[in-house]
Predict the structure.
Amino acid sequence: MPVWVNFLSSEKIPEHKIIDEPEKRFQVLNDVSVVSHQFIVNFDYDSFPNDFIYEFSAEYTGSPLLQMSIIRPDGNQLKLISTSLPYSKSSTIHNERIFSTDGAIRKNLFLQKEIFGFSIDNISVEDIVFSKLDTHEVLKGDYIFLVNLYGVKTQNEILNSKLIVGGKAFGLMGTDELRRDLAVGLLWGTPLALFIGLAVSIGSVTMGLLYGVYAGFKGKKTDEALMRFNDVIYALPALPFLIILAVTISNSIFLIIGFLMIFGWVGIAKVSR
């Protein structure tokens, strides 16, 4: 759905959020280095998000520990995941995505289910994270996604860090089933559509004008033969022929323009004659 539906509906639908500029901190405690990234998400909607994804790339040596948690508007902190990155003797760059559908996140939330006043057994991870403690309703406010990368006697670094909160509304025209922005497709397709339309219209008018003027100028049998041929082309079902020709011959834009011109000049020819 497009984002402007929230202006027309009493129920505010969660918008798709992409946060790629977190608050960054670095500190060293004894021999342990800690790289922290914080993402602040203002969630002021009436329904739950579809999911959330954390995408990052880290440069490190050894096998640092990555921990991800969330601080809710009510002050409670939920631990989402704690995992070690793949071991490397030398400096390496590791890229990874952590999805809310990860089994480790669900397992960690189940270990903390005593703080909830309702059963979370058959509820999705995003519903658990964004719900109130006593009822299965949306908890509005600021959520802080906290990511910590721990290393021992090494200085690690998170190079790129991005949090995606999947909503139900995005952009001016919404998205398709693969979450691709429809507005981008429209912007890319508009110049091509204009080119095809202008080329077909100019070409068809030119062909029809020349054909009709020539038939009217020659007259007699030539005129009769040309007009009968015009009637035959006019009677052909254009759409099925265009589909068959485009599929069997080629999907070239110029061939499509040619096929459209073949069936588009007959009306102009009758008028110009």
